[in-house]
Specification:
14 strands; binds nicotinamide-adenine-dinucleotide; Rossmann fold; 3-stranded parallel β-sheet; UDP-galactose 4-epimerase, domain 1
């Protein structure tokens, strides 16, 4: 990776992946792009930025050629809960971003990273320690259908055209820089903000709902390690299970209470999110990622909670949020 383009740079992952990659590869070698500069002002101050609608293929090609890009990070997607509100649009954006990225990569010699998700699994997938290679035929969301399609198509472009496609199935990502963009695991971010804001939280998925989660620093580390991995060691490509922690709402609340003893939680279930959460794994088996490219997370629930509460409190103290 020498010249990198990140599309969807203003989102929850991109807003942290851009600075992370710039710190490793140099500010001018990492181009941030999003549909508008609105969410990317800070990224545009530190390095190159382009306003790009990823569905505009000609403009996308122009940017890849202008900067002589060799690696594409395609982060554009409508997420799981948002996607269910408009499945047709979710397919158009998620698959449009993917096919444009793959075709442009094929014609311009780029590697491509397009994240998959725990949402690539469905209700008939084994729920505990979900294997790397398993059933993915019982998906109940358009988001998941797009993710399975993305995994298959990315493998196809590797085998058929030699495009260096690599990907991970991200768990729900927990971070403090940018709020999540409409996923089913968003509660596990919002809970920290409300713990600081009002020492209480109304959770929209039921107690006992286990899902894989990951702290953003581990997610960023995974992306770089996978993209830098020796290709001869990769038996899989699209996409690797990666895991670091699995918890239910009661467990994260109990962890928060160690720092905020007065913290209280009640429930108001969102039926759409609950149904999606129920169809996803409780925990994934990430043995293949560990064996093929040395994946090993740094954060569990305890260490993440300590850090999140400090960082979110700093944002309140500085008046960055209310
Ligand atoms: P996000 O919703 O926060 O960000 C997506 C970005 O894409 C936004 O900044 C949006 O402005 C941009 N975008 C939308 N339409 C566009 C278009 N037509 N052209 C250009 N930009 C456009 O998403 P995220 O949470 O950062 O997720 C990034 C990727 O990681 C997605 O593929 C998502 O499925 C995957 N993922 C995320 C999580 C998570 O917990 N955040 C978990 C698993 C997988």
């Amino acid at each position: 990776m020498k010249k990198i383009l990140i599309i969807g740079a203003g989102g929850q992952i991109g807003s942290e992946l851009v600075p992370h990659l710039r710190s490793i590869y140099g500010n001018n070698n990492v181009v941030a792009a999003d549909i508008s500069i609105e969410k990317c002002k800070h990224l545009a101050e530190d390095g190159p930025f382009e306003a790009l609608d990823v569905l505009d293929k000609d403009h996308y090609i122009e940017i890849v050629r202008k900067y002589k890009i060799d690696t594409l990070f395609n982060l554009v997607a409508l997420l799981s809960a948002t996607g269910e509100k408009n499945p047709e649009l979710a397919w158009k954006i998620n698959i449009g971003a993917l096919t444009n990225s793959l075709n442009i990569a094929k014609d311009n010699g780029c590697a491509v990273f397009t994240p998959s998700s725990i949402g690539a699994f469905g209700k008939d997938t084994p729920k505990d320690k979900t294997p790397q290679d398993t059933l993915q035929r019982s998906n109940t969301t358009i988001y998941g259908v797009c993710k399975v399609t993305g995994e298959l198509l990315s493998d196809y472009y590797f085998h058929r055209f030699g495009v260096d496609t690599r990907s991970v199935r991200f768990p729900g990502l927990i971070s403090y820089v940018t709020l999540p963009g409409g996923g089913t695991t968003d509660y596990a971010v919002e809970i920290y903000y409300d713990a600081i804001r009002k020492q209480s939280f109304t959770c929209n998925v039921k107690a006992g709902t286990y899902m894989d989660m990951m702290y953003m620093p581990d997610a960023l580390k995974a992306v770089v390690e996978l993209m830098e991995a020796d290709p001869t060691k990769l038996k899989h490509r699209n996409s690797f299970n990666i895991a670091s922690m699995s918890f239910d709402p009661e467990e994260i609340a109990a962890e928060i209470r160690k720092h905020v003893p007065a913290f209280k939680m009640d429930y108001e279930i969102d039926p759409v999110k609950q149904a999606i959460a129920d169809s996803w794994p409780n925990s994934m088996d990430d043995t293949c990622a560990r064996e093929e490219w040395g994946w090993k997370p740094d954060y569990g629930l305890e260490k993440m909670t300590t850090d999140m509460l400090v960082k979110v409190k700093e944002k309140f103290d500085k008046g960055l949020i209310k």
